[in-house]
Write a structure and sequence with these properties.
By secondary structure, the protein is α/β, with parallel strands linked by helices. The protein has twelve helices and eight strands. It folds into two domains: 2-161, 3-Layer(aba) Sandwich (Rossmann fold), CATH 3.40.50; 165-286.
Length: 287
């Protein structure tokens, strides 16, 4: 099997390393010469055009920035409709699926189509620790089962979810958490003495500081796209209302949060507490 990756950015390069480690052939097409050069060093074959990559690939992963995924999918659709590629499995790794779902309409049955979301970043370690979400294309659900099987064979935990449920969940798990991290970074900049804050930081803040620092490595246009989405803006407004409640009625905010404690259960909360400290100890040991 040969995997073709369109876009050798951080997550694309991560998958190049994984696929090569699993003994798979990997091809890369990227408009950036620098990214192509890095992918070649990782053991990937470099192609000068999307068509050439597609012809020589069994799987095609579209891992370009969110604003270019649709264009790549439309080009692949033209190749499939023209009979240039057949029997290929095509999927993207876009963070939000509301933009890309319409682009899958009209793909012929001579290729398989699905969408995936690796629920981890390029700093991830073993696949066994992480989840890949598989999002079926409406009307092409059978195609997604082929993708599920492939990623399970690589060791990932795989969940299957429809695109609307996926985007609504991601607006909170990624959108709101990104807003919190970036707002914390802005608050630190305004504090005027971030070094002193870091020195005096306790466990909770050190945990949060790792979050905002990791976000600062992401491309600005990616961060902006996340925060500008209507679903995310709604979540951020909800978060702002809760923060305002902390000023008006802190007791009520605490009560509302503690209602969640009852539904989670003490055992799971204690497990999360231990995991937090282990995470921090691992970071300290590696720094």
């Amino acid at each position: 099997m040969k995997i073709g990756i369109v876009g050798a950015g951080k997550i694309g390069s991560w998958f190049v390393r994984l696929f090569r480690a699993r003994g798979l052939e990997v091809g890369v097409y990227d408009v950036s010469k620098e990214a192509s050069k890095k992918a070649r060093k990782l053991g990937a074959d470099i192609y000068g055009s999307l068509e050439n990559l597609a012809i020589h690939s069994d799987h095609i992963m579209v891992s370009t920035p969110q604003d270019t995924v649709v264009k790549v999918l439309e080009n692949l659709k033209s190749l499939a409709l023209g009979g240039v590629i057949r029997g290929t499995t095509i999927y993207d790794t876009a963070t939000f699926k509301e933009d890309v779902m319409p682009a899958y309409r009209g793909f012929p049955n001579t290729v398989r189509v699905a969408s995936i979301h690796p629920l981890f970043g390029p700093g991830a370690s073993r696949p066994e620790k992480h989840v890949v979400a598989v999002i079926p294309i409406p009307g092409r659900e059978a195609d997604s089962r082929h993708v599920e099987k492939f990623y399970k064979s690589l060791g990932f935990r795989v969940v299957t979810v429809d695109h609307a449920t996926h985007d609504e969940a991601v607006s909170l798990t990624i959108g709101a958490s990104y807003a919190v991290g970036l707002a914390l970074a802005g608050l630190l900049r305004r504090a005027g003495n971030p070094e002193a804050v870091e020195t005096l930081a306790g466990t909770t803040f050190r945990y949060l500081s790792n979050h905002y620092k990791s976000l600062l490595l992401d491309p600005p246009r990616f961060l902006t796209d996340i925060l500008a989405r209507d679903r995310v803006r709604r979540r951020v407004r909800e978060l702002s209302e809760l923060l305002a409640e902390a000023l008006r009625n802190p007791e009520r905010l605490v009560e509302e949060a503690l209602e969640l404690r009852r539904s989670i259960g003490r055992e799971k909360l204690e497990k999360a507490y231990r995991a937090l400290y282990k995470c921090l100890e691992d970071v300290i040991d590696s720094s």
